[in-house]
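Feature request disguised as a bug: please show the residue count (113) next to Cupin domain-containing protein in the output. Example input:
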Amino acid sequence: MQIIKGAGEWAQPVGGAANDWVEQLRVPDLSVGTYCIPAGGADTQSPHTEDEIYVVTSGRARIVTPGAEAEVGPGAVIFVPAGEEHRFVDITEDLTLLVVFGPAYGSRAASPA
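Example output, currently without the count:
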């Protein structure tokens, strides 16, 4: 067993960065981290090669994918399949997301030829 300290807790992005991503746990089959975007900020992520679950721990925003969009706030749980474009927009309150990747973040990334 392991207690994952700091997971899902707000952290101000460092040095004027648009957002903040911190991975707190990594094993081959999954990884857990926290993604923070300040109110009015920009979500600059690209689609991932792994399936992903977001749990909104604080803040409010709208998530947009090619096929849908939804308002999200504390307690919302969002599944995004590998490869799907997605972005948080209209961030009206500092947004904190507990993020779970399966398998671990970046583990399916294409290797250089």
